[in-house]
């Protein structure tokens, strides 16, 4: 007997499964695991009053590290794999913001002398692999994008969301906001 096509997984369940797949996974050498980092980042976005697409990007900015997501673009860096996934499931705004979170870090290092001093040692090390401070042409191009300001907001929450044991909203509460994006 042949099997029919597999029913598509609803977006909410897909996001939940791919986020839960990073629970307990180390986040490079940071002090929190990847799920705690995602929940902290999403919670910071909600507390700042961000709109749903930005909360979704904060929650999902590293989803490209989740095994089922990275397997879809195995040769791409995690921000590109995450951008493709989020664009498909939640639309272009969320996808762009997720894809921009590394460039936003490089832009902030160039724009704000105090920002680099706040980066964790792990993030300082990865900065060089990511291309270092943004050069003026790519910085100009980035800043002209209408979502650049929100991408830098996501990036600052990303950098803050590394506190062991920090209280967060529940995953389902954050998914409620994200799927409204
Ligand atoms: Fe992150």
Automatic annotation (TrEMBL):
This protein's UniProt keywords: Hydrolase
Molecular-function GO terms, alphabetical: hydrolase activity
Gene3D superfamilies linked to this entry: Hypothetical protein af1432
Keyword Hydrolase applies: yes
Entry keyword Chaperone: no
Matching InterPro entries: HD_domain, OP_Dioxygenase
HD domain residues: 36-158
Name of the protein described by the UniProt record: Putative HD phosphohydrolase
Source organism per UniProt: Pseudonocardia kunmingensis
């Amino acid at each position: 007997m042949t099997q029919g096509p597999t029913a598509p997984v609803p977006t909410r369940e897909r996001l939940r499964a791919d986020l839960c797949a990073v629970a307990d996974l180390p986040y490079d050498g940071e002090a929190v695991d990847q799920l705690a980092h995602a929940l902290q980042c999403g919670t910071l976005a909600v507390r700042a009053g961000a709109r749903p697409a930005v909360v979704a990007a904060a929650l999902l900015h590293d989803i490209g590290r989740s095994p089922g997501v990275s397997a879809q673009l195995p040769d791409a860096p995690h921000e590109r794999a995450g951008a493709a996934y989020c664009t498909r499931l939640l639309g272009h705004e969320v996808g762009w913001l997720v894809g921009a979170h590394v460039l936003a870090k490089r832009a902030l290092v160039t724009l704000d002398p105090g920002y680099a001093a706040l980066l964790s040692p792990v993030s300082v090390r990865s900065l060089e692999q990511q291309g270092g401070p943004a050069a003026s042409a790519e910085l100009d191009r980035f800043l002209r994008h209408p979502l650049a300001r929100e991408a830098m907001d996501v990036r600052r929450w990303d950098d803050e969301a590394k506190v062991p044991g920090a209280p967060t909203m529940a995953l389902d509460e954050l998914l409620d906001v994200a799927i409204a994006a």
